[in-house]
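Onboarding guide, step 5: your first structure request.
Type a short instruction followed by the sequence, for example:

Predict the 3D structure of this protein.
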Amino acid sequence: NLKEVVQGCLALIENSDLGIDELMQIIPGPDFPTGGIINGRAGIIEAYKTGRGRIYVRAKADIEIDERTNRESIIISEIPYQLNKSRLIEKIAELVKDKKLEGIAELRDESDKDGMRIVIDLKRGEISEVVLNNLYAQTQMQSVFGINIVALVDDQPKILNLKEVLEAFIRHRQEIVTRRTLYLMRKARDRAHSLEGFAVALANIDEIIQIIKKSSTASEARETLVSKTWSPGENVLKMLSELEPGLARPEWLDDAFGLNKDRYKISPEQARDILDLRLHRLTGMEHEKIIEEFHQKLTEIAGYQEILGNSQILMDLIKNELEEIQEEFGDERRTEICESSHDLTLEDLISEEDRVVTISNGGYAKTQPLDDYQAQRRGGMGKSATAVKDEDFVEHLLIASTHSTILCFTNLGKVYWLKVFQIPLAGRNSRGRPVVNLLPLDEGERISSILPIDDYSNEKSIVMSTANGTVKKTNLKEYSRPRSVGLRAVDLAEGDYLVGTEIVDGSKDIMLFSSEGKAVRFRESDVRAMGRVAKGVRGMRLGQEHKVISMLIPATDGFLLAVCENGFGKRTDLNEFPTKGRGGKGMIAIQASDRNGPLVGATQLFPGDEIMLISDQGTMVRTRGDEISIVGRNTQGVRIIRLKENEHLVRLARISEPSDESPGQDNLETE
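The system replies with structure tokens like these:
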């Protein structure tokens, strides 16, 4: 920016000891005519300190929300320098058409004489920050500009830092102003010399006119004027007597010319100017103008000599000229500089909040705010939480922060990484987005288990169990390097699939629950740590046609919540389940009678916890765990959810957040 550069030069002239950091306070970075946002200062700092660097320039975009439709729109008002607006719009449209860019409903150009306005309307439930960052990543809405400050210094190419380039510019200005002053002083002396000749000619005007009249050519007249010596006259003597010696005398003038005692010898240049003199200059008024102009030239010459003889005056002149340039041509900065946002991860742009994450059996994923649901009394009918197609139902549900990573384990034994904020936020009646649009799943591959991860500690491991009763423990660090194509997580036998995953720290017990209503509890240390692709060891021996349906890590003050297919369940103190070796058939956890049906879910509850119950028709009920009766192991339990005809319970999840329900409200439905 011109104003900033001028201010930096002026500051460096005032204080030559200024460092690069101080100069960067005045000149914070490049300024582009099309505006935009410089994303981070790291590249600017590197360029200004070393002479080389890269900066990331982003389009300026704002988020607007339509109050009527509650949809968000991205409004682009500035784009990076040299980026063609039409080509940018074409590129975005092409990415949307090829399904490489998700979440955009409409794209239009509303630019007019008042400025640029590109409008990108988003689909309902899309997170604008995610779409915007995808635009930055896949289009030239974020462009890279290289900085290479190379200049010729003393006829040698050199890479300069910020201070060095300003110093070189100031030295250049010193040289330019000095050379200009010398030129102007030379021209002023030449003019003063001509004016001396005019004054002498006016003092001897009659004789000069006679010489001109008698001469046959101009060259003959000039030679005659030069060959003679002339009386200088009183005006010339007075003019020259006030001068310092040599002040107005041109450097090229031979000593034979000029005033010598009481006679004046005209130079060839003066003779030429005299012959070119117009007759109206011979009047008395013009005579006075010649004397006045001569004195003016003398003043100019003295000023030039003062500039050349005093460096401070020279620098003051440079400063004044820079200030004039700033005043005439300077404008305000157009390009905004963001503090280190280049180093921010995408989740830094997303507000952290808990979300209900659901994935249906048909492969649709979505998130919903946790506070969309208020607690119901035990036995409530609930409201539909997810719109499902025929024969589809919600298969996976968990509560996780928008900043968490979800490890998605599939039926083929692979694991994929997915950020919660990447899953679209959707309403209660929306199916969500197909998982295949979020993860690169192969044909026939589906998610069988999900696990939220906040950090990859070396002291923690992931324990996973399969439907055939196999358990495996792998260090969490082995999953700390996400790959877009996924990784092999476990080697599954044919027909086997994952039913649960948990994070452990080496001191826990592990409990497995079968559809037969039985449970086995053993120490985590009974399972040695294995590699990612290992098969694991036997955790539970199963009866014919029965499968493991759940795994949990018991706590000392926890209760087991077991729920059956027909909506019945109970709480049981986990201390009633003794720790034994792994590989057994287990003990009774709940009676899987005809009334109850098979066991479909088991989780651990603490005082104040709430639970989510999901049926195969998409009905969700949120209720307090404290309202469910605590009974022994070998019992049937009580009704927890009232199911419709041909409706079955398929899933539950624990919520570690108390409800805001007021006393006396028996059946608060979803809002």
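Each response can be followed by summary notes, for example: Confidence is low (pLDDT under 50) at residues 656-671.
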